[in-house]
Specification:
The chain is α+β, with helices and mostly antiparallel strands and 86 residues long. It has 3 helices and 3 strands; from the N terminus they run ββααβα. A hairpin with a 2-residue loop joins strand 1 and strand 2. The longest helix has 19 residues. The chain is globular, with a radius of gyration of 12 Å.
């Protein structure tokens, strides 16, 4: 992961998943964001979308050269903006 010019750049999907898990765990344990074993994937996405929304308030973007990962990031931001996680 690199940070420069208000952009966080991920190199691989695996790298993104590590950060996504850490962010989700922090939001869930420290801030009480919902998490359940049955809905773990969606709950992790929700927590990560919240983090993306917070970063975007400071004009920080996440990017990846891998098209699938970039599509995932864009979709997650769109879903968050459409209030899908509320």
């Amino acid at each position: 992961m690199f940070f420069r010019n208000n952009t966080i750049e991920f190199k691989t999907k695996e790298e993104l998943e590590v950060y996504k898990s850490a962010v989700a765990e922090t939001l869930q344990s420290d801030f009480g964001v919902r998490w359940d074993l049955k809905t773990a994937k969606t709950d992790d996405d929700r927590a990560f979308a919240m983090a993306l929304a917070c970063l975007s308030e400071f004009d920080i973007n996440l990017v990846c050269d891998d098209e699938k990962v970039q599509k995932y990031l864009n979709d997650l931001q769109t879903r968050g903006a459409n209030k899908e996680f509320i």
